[in-house]
Amino acid sequence: MPSFICTTCGVGHAPSDTPPAHCPICEDERQYVNARGQSWTTLAELQADHTNDIRELEPGLWGIGATPQIAIGQRALFIPQPGGGILWDCTPLITEAAIAHIKAQGGLRAIAISHPHFYSSMVDWSEAFGGISIHIHEANRPHVMRPSDRIRYFAGDRIDLGQGVTVTRAGGHYVGSSALHWPGADGKGVLMTGDTIMVVPDTRWVSFMYSFPNLIPLPAREVSRIVGTVDDLSYDRIYSAWWDRVMTSDAKARVQASAERYIKAIS
Questions:
Q1: What's the total number of domains in the chain?
Q2: Residue 210 within any structural domain of the chain
Q3: pLDDT confidence tier of residue 180, bands split at 50, 70 and 90
Q4: With 0-12 CB in 10 A as exposed, 13-18 as middle and 19+ as buried, what is 105?
Q5: Which residues, 6 or more positions from 163, have their beta carbon under 8 angstroms from its beta carbon?
Q6: 238, 217, 243: which is closest to 75 by C-alpha?
Q7: Rounded to two decimals, what is the model's pTM?
Q8: Position 47 in a domain
Q9: Residue 229 included in any domain
Q10: Is residue 110 part of a domain?
Q11: Cα–Cα nearest to 84, from 63, 100, 61, 105
Q12: What is the pLDDT of residue 53?
């Protein structure tokens, strides 16, 4: 049985003979149901007319997206490391070309996901690399549409994935929304945030929202709390979940300035 994938949010659901009646991820107020109605695809259908877009973003970091764009158009991030690397967030599409590229870089030892909108085809990604663990915060368990024994739910505010990589529960967008910290090849630090801390089109700034498509803001206290969850981490750059949403320098100071600007605007 196929895992049907919602064409609006790109999240894979539990295998079934027929498409689900609705997508709970899209019906949540943080997302939206397409005005043309609910529709579905499958991984096999996507593989027939899409390719993985693989780009080196900086030394030791690769982006993996899809062409043409699928659903909300995010790209995953891959950190090669000795003994297997880390895949941060997922895309609905996984191809033999992407698998071969990652294996040529040493393979994967774990997947970690920022929040439900990027669950995508996470189980297929895991199984393509021997059933590696998928790390998701416990608070986001109710939003998992395709349960799997590959998923490892973590509690608390931070987990250590080894070789300098940690995942911090930041909250905000979802209670369990998380950010990944990687030292970077230069040691200055990189924060990967999904859209919990969102790099905006003017990439000198970030923003914070309960729902981006529905323009629902977060309160000042929550914005301050989010920034505080990563305050002990050193980071110079931020990668949000899209190709063009990257802050390339001085990120920690810019996050603080962005939070101050946001709080001033809503006060």
A1: 1
A2: yes
A3: very high
A4: middle
A5: 81, 82
A6: 243
A7: 0.97
A8: no
A9: yes
A10: yes
A11: 105
A12: 98
